[in-house]
From TrEMBL:
One of its GO terms (cellular component) is plasma membrane. Keywords: Lipid metabolism, Repeat. The lineage of its organism: Eukaryota, Viridiplantae, Streptophyta, Embryophyta, Tracheophyta. It comes from Trifolium pratense. Residues 17-81 form the Phospholipase D C-terminal domain. InterPro entries: PLipase_D_C, PLipase_D_fam. It comes from the Eukaryota. The keyword Repeat applies. It holds the Pfam family PLD_C. PANTHER family: PHOSPHOLIPASE D, PHOSPHOLIPASE D DELTA. GO terms for biological process: phospholipid catabolic process. This is Phospholipase D delta-like protein. Signal peptide: none annotated.
Length: 114
């Protein structure tokens, strides 16, 4: 299982790191989010560059009331020009929880535990 997990890290993130050996640790979560955010920046920039792996931050933000919105100045996927958020009122509960989970992972890197 360990070898399989490490190969998944390498495939999806384009690298291996010592922090991936303990994925339950906050340091690992922060590292994965850093890579995902960097990949989103590369993907969404005007300049063509290679991504470091396949994992990207999904371009949404969730406010403290649970409202899901697109990132500022990014309502469509850059390469396809299609909207990635359903119209208001079309969210399924499972989709909301998936987005909340993704945003929680990202926000862990920004807010210290109290």
């Amino acid at each position: 299982i360990y070898g399989y997990r490490m190969s998944l890290w390498a495939e999806h993130l384009g690298m291996l790191d010592e922090t991936f050996k303990e994925p339950e640790r906050l340091e690992c979560v922060r590292k994965v989010n850093e890579i995902a955010n960097n990949n989103w920046s590369i993907y969404s920039s005007e300049e063509m560059s290679l991504l470091h792996g396949h994992l990207l931050k999904y371009p949404v933000q969730i406010d403290s009331d649970g409202q899901i919105s697109s990132l500022p100045e990014c309502e469509n996927f850059p390469d396809a020009g299609v909207c990635y958020l359903p119209r208001h009122g079309e969210w399924q509960l499972s989709e909301v929880f998936s987005f909340l989970y993704l945003e929680l992972i990202v926000q862990i890197t920004c807010k210290p535990f109290t």
